[in-house]
Design brief:
The complex is a heterotrimer. By secondary structure, chain A is an alpha/beta fold. Chain A contains 14 helices and 15 strands. Chain B is built from four helices and nine strands, in the order βββαβββββααβα. In chain B, the strands form two sheets. A six-stranded antiparallel sheet of chain B has the order 1-2-3-9-8-5. In chain B, strand 1 and strand 2 form a beta hairpin. Chain B is globular. The chains are: A alpha/beta, B alpha+beta, C alpha/beta. Chains in contact: A-B, A-C, B-C.
Chain lengths: ~450, ~130, ~475
């Protein structure tokens, strides 16, 4: 079943028009010794009924945020997605279109991307946004490459260890053969202490990268670090959480120069890690250094308001060997979802969502600290994610909670030395009081069980 | 014919030496290739350049061309009016369409010795089929 | 009917106080002030305020201003705009796939890990290579990833190789990826649409790390000398990279590993029909020969008995090229496609893609110049050079006029080696009637008046945006009046 439509008669007529006897003759340019003389060794074809049965069986072998209570975060979040998002984005005029190079045939997507760019500017308080990047990690990397271009400094890049470990790892991979070198600032107190940044910041530094709220869920001293950066002519790159901006100060208002984010929480499901949505916004002055696609407003030959891809000379397929970015596609469909999502929430919806996250996360901490001997590891203000120190082995604790139906948290041992006894918990607006109480009870029983196990 | 009082680069810049200052622009041939200029990025005053290094660019809708510094020096003036109105660049490339001025590093008299003479540049254009 | 309401921006439709999404009333006590004031915003972002009906009507009306595969023939060369099966959308949205968190323990997502493991092995088999990383988010990132793998491989072998050779007909992303991977890009000339062997020989030496080739190439030709080329590169100690953008022509017919490629990327959104989403998401997995496997990005999915796990303990790996595993949602669609087609179906894809392209070529070759001859693989490049010279009709005019007839334009002005290029790829899923109607239309347009064509399209809601104005003074967001 290959979705081919031509009948046998049609194929014969086509071959006659071409002037060959058989399809095989069309492959004559491929030398015989290079041909595969057998069928590919992959499973036999399935009908729709069989495939559906097979995929449903595979899906049933995965726990997920619909059948378990999800308190996992670490850059991917179980946020509410209004039904309008999926209804609109499943319009195949959007999802089966190509990149809008032919503007006249793509005004729908182009206007939606223009609206997306505007929404991201409104969200962040920045002046310019692109039409999206791959995801959060590569967005940090693209921002760092861009900062080098803006400042003309190809020396040092300062990154706090409280930035997502995957983002830092991605950055290091990209920079392997390029000039800039990464200096990581340790964050033993759960945030990047501005004094520690000051010590390594110099006039060869292109930028400082913070995540706010950071990987531990804690808030960073972004405003103070912005001042430090600007004093030596460096840029502040901040990776933000879009939902947090319902209540937290905007990057544009605390002095960020380039604001990037993982935009998954804006209407995109968890999808085991992708496709997600990279956001990038910056100051007007850097508009010609911004990576990736951008849509601009112009007029057509009759003077009508029209949208088109613009500033394409920055893009890598035109810059070729002078490229300073690896972005080729954007995440069009994910950007559309984010645009619909932000529109559906509006200012009140975004603020309420952020408040619910904040209040429920703080309620969760209070319950867990009341019912167990576990305590928050870092004494810092936090938003929806927090780090707990466990008195029993984290792995068995989380396993116990899983058996009770809770995806309770992320063990930090795989990323941070010294935090082997810690795990992080995220509480979104979707979690209810009874789910949070249930989690606290599950952890309580795990701790008791663990204590018994140790005593025995 | 190209002006006889200037020196040239293979990348179609021209240079004029006056005292220890070199004025830089692009040739009429290069300017004629640029339709619909959308943006000109010039080096900032004070920037130090080395001969042959990229120090700015000219963008059209479909392409971006780098500007190369014909000689090493320190940028001492830029024709900043061009960033608002690029018309002189194509209308008068050897005059009001100049791009930037450099104060030469080292011996000013020899500064242009590595560049093409008008005759050599004319030959290059012809050999490229223009 | 002009749907005026959909050309207003959502910001212009906003009225203070309107609501769409509703959140539940909080069931927990308010947090006793825990966040210092310096972190707090004075007011939430000034997003638009609309009711649910207006949100839906706005975006649904906007969607009707797009061409798409589901509404129009889309012969966009090099982009493989084939039909996107609806069952894939439904299956990828199953909660057991779409709602899985990327950091769940391996034990809790054996279904998805098994699927990804199988996908790795299918892509290795189709490539004729040995190891696969599903991590790259798009084709260009696949290129970069593979070049970083090559760089790590040579470093490990103690060889300093600094150059990547690339034919002049290549996608612009090839030299761009080489630059970001820290290599110098060196261009190799074409001769009659094929790699110029003499130029290649002259530029191959012990500085050569990788030769990047697109095969079939961007002219729609299978590189006949590919075995010689790969042998020359290997003798010089270099690696051969295959840009897999055109895999739709050779599925099950010849395999990159069998003709000497050491690494390649796939575009799952092209060959294995992930929907293009108006510019993404894509997915650009890479396949490599066995000696390069240790350098692939981490993690890979491995099987231990009947369990699947993510292997992160790979000390020679280049590291990650993105966060989390990859564009799994697109990989799931690609997996569904491969399972639906099976080995015979995949072979049929290429048979029919090549048949359709050659048929269209046979209909057009006497009407348009096709410099590279009267046979092609899955696509071909026609030139409007003569039409331009004699009637002042350019490739762009033809492209814009096609829109009036409900056809998306072919790729224009690429590859750069063909003047006034129209690059046409019909794909296997179109039928003869569609191809005939398209050919008839192209021939009709060719006879139209040049001045009339200059103002095409005439029937769409917009015509010929002013690109100079857009780039000179960029307006990239709406601002309140």
């Amino acid at each position: 079943m290959s979705y081919v439509q031509n009948t046998a008669e049609q194929q014969a007529a086509m071959l006659a028009s071409i002037g060959v006897d058989c399809i095989e003759a069309l492959f004559a340019p491929i030398p015989s010794e290079l041909r595969l003389k057998r069928l590919l060794d992959i499973p036999a074809a399935m009908s729709e009924i069989e495939l559906t049965r097979h995929m449903t069986a595979l899906a049933s072998r995965n726990r997920n945020a619909s059948d378990s209570v999800c308190f996992l975060g670490g850059g991917a979040y179980d946020h509410f997605i209004p039904a309008v998002v999926d209804a609109i984005c499943s319009r195949s005029e959007y999802y089966t279109a190509y990149t809008p190079y032919q503007a006249e045939a793509s005004q729908g997507s182009l206007q939606a991307f223009f609206e997306f760019q505007t929404l991201i500017c409104q969200l962040t308080g920045m002046e310019v946004a692109n039409a999206s990047l791959y995801e959060g990690g590569t967005s940090v990397t693209e921002a760092v490459l861009m900062a080098a271009g803006v400042t003309g400094r190809h020396g040092r890049v300062i990154v706090a260890e409280s930035v997502h470990p995957d983002y830092r790892s991605t950055l290091k991979t990209y920079l392997a053969n390029l000039e800039p070198k990464v200096t990581e600032v340790p964050t033993p107190e759960g945030f990047a202490n501005p004094d520690d940044i000051r010590k390594v910041l110099d006039d060869q530094t292109s930028c400082v990268v913070l995540q706010h709220p950071n990987f531990f869920g804690c808030l960073e001293e972004v405003e103070e670090v912005a001042k430090l950066c600007h004093a030596v002519g460096a840029l502040l790159v901040v990776s933000f959480d879009p939902i947090s901006l319902g209540i937290l100060k905007k990057p544009g208002d605390y002095g960020a120069d380039i604001a990037v984010a993982e935009g998954q929480g804006l209407g995109n499901p968890l999808n085991y890690g992708g496709p997600y949505l990279g956001l990038l916004a910056c100051r007007e002055a850097y508009v010609r250094k911004i990576p990736g696609r951008v849509v601009g407003q112009t007029t057509d030959r009759l003077g009508r308001r029209t949208y088109a891809l613009t500033l394409q000379t920055r893009e890598q397929h035109i810059r070729r060997e002078k490229a300073t970015s690896n972005i080729c596609t954007n995440q069009g469909l994910m950007a559309l979802k984010a645009a619909v999502h932000l529109t559906a929430l509006g200012p009140s919806g975004l603020r309420e969502t952020a408040h619910l996250c904040l209040n429920k996360a703080h309620y969760a901490v209070a319950q867990i600290e009341t019912m167990t001997d576990m305590r928050r590891r870092f004494n810092r203000p936090f938003f929806k994610e927090f780090t707990l120190q466990s008195s029993v082995p984290v792995h068995s604790l989380l396993e116990h909670a899983r058996d009770d139906g809770y995806l309770a948290g992320l063990a930090l041992a795989r990323w941070y030395e010294g935090l082997e006894d810690c795990f992080s918990v995220t509480v979104t607006e979707k979690r209810t009081r009874s789910e949070i109480d249930g989690l606290a009870r599950s952890l309580q029983s795990a701790v008791r069980h663990g204590v018994r196990a140790v005593m025995a | 014919m190209v002006p006889g009082n200037l020196r040239y680069t293979k990348t179609h810049e021209w240079a004029l030496l006056e005292g220890d200052v070199v004025t830089v622009g692009i040739t009429k041939f290069a300017a004629d290739q640029l339709t619909d200029i959308t943006y000109i990025e010039l080096p900032s005053v004070g920037k130090k350049t080395i001969a042959g290094s990229a120090c700015g660019n000219i963008e059209t809708v479909k392409a971006v061309s780098d500007l190369y510094s014909p000689v090493g020096g320190e940028v001492c003036a830029v024709n900043s009016g061009l960033t608002a109105d690029a018309a002189p660049l194509t209308a008068d490339p050897y005059g009001t369409g100049w791009l930037f001025k450099l104060r030469v590093t080292g011996n000013a008299a020899d500064a242009l010795s590595g560049l093409l003479t008008p005759g050599a540049y004319q030959n290059q254009l012809e050999s490229e089929g223009h | 009917m002009e749907k005026n309401q959909s050309t207003a921006l959502i910001f212009e439709l906003s009225r203070s106080g309107r609501r769409c999404a509703r959140l539940p009333v909080s069931d927990v006590p308010d947090a006793v002030v825990t966040i210092p004031q310096r972190f707090m915003a004075d007011a939430p972002p000034a997003l638009p305020e609309l009711g649910e009906l207006d949100v839906v009507r706005h975006f649904v009306n906007l969607s009707t201003k797009n061409m798409s595969i589901d509404t129009n023939f889309y012969p966009l060369g090099s982009c493989t705009m084939k039909y996107n099966p609806k069952r894939h959308e439904r299956l990828a949205a199953l909660a057991g796939l779409a709602d899985v968190h990327p950091l769940q323990d391996d034990e809790t997502c054996q279904g998805i890990l098994g699927l990804l493991y199988e996908m790795q092995s299918y892509l290795a088999e189709i490539a004729g290579l040995h190891g696969v990383s599903l991590q790259p988010a798009a084709g260009a990132q696949g290129e970069l990833t593979a070049l970083l793998v090559a760089s790590a491989y040579f470093k490990d072998k103690g060889q300093k190789r600094t150059r990547v050779l690339i034919p002049d007909s290549a996608h612009g992303t090839n030299p761009a990826s080489a630059a970001i991977a820290g290599f110098d890009a060196v261009q190799i000339k074409s001769q009659g649409g094929y790699v110029d062997l003499e130029d290649l020989k002259a530029k191959l030496d012990d500085r050569t790390a990788v030769f990047m080739i697109t095969n079939p190439n961007t002219l729609g030709l299978f590189e006949k000398q590919i075995a010689t080329i790969t042998k020359l590169v290997h003798e010089a100690g270099g690696l051969v990279y295959l840009d897999g953008a055109n895999m739709n022509a050779i599925l099950g017919i010849t395999r990159p590993g069998d003709f000497g490629a050491d690494m390649m990327h796939y575009n799952v959104h092209k060959t294995f029909t992930g929907p293009h989403g108006a510019g993404g998401p894509g997915s650009g997995p890479i396949a490599v020969r066995d000696m390069l496997i240790p350098y692939l990005p981490s993690p890979l999915v491995v099987r231990q008995g009947d369990r699947y796990t993510l292997d992160e303990d790979r000390p020679q790996s280049i590291g990650r090229v993105r966060s989390f595993f990859g564009n799994v949602g697109i990989l799931i669609r690609g997996y569904c496609y491969i399972r639906t087609l099976g080995p015979s179906g995949l072979r049929e894809v290429s048979d029919q893609a090549v048949l359709n392209a050659n048929y269209l070529l046979s209909r057009l070759k006497d009407q348009f110049e096709v410099p590279q001859g009267d046979r092609c693989m899955h696509e071909f490049v026609a030139s409007c050079r003569t039409l331009r010279r004699e009637k002042n009709i350019s490739a762009m005019e033809i492209a814009k006029r096609l829109l009036d007839f409900g056809y998306h334009a072919p790729t224009v002005y690429f590859p750069l080696v063909v003047p006034e290029a129209l690059m046409i790829e019909p794909t296997e899923t179109e039928n003869k009637e569609t191809l005939d109607a398209f050919a008839d239309t192209l021939i009709k347009i060719k006879g139209e008046d040049a001045a009339f064509l200059k103002e095409a399209p005439h029937t769409l809601s917009r015509s010929r945006p002013d690109e100079v104005k857009a780039a000179k003074e960029p307006i990239l967001r709406w601002k309140p009046a």
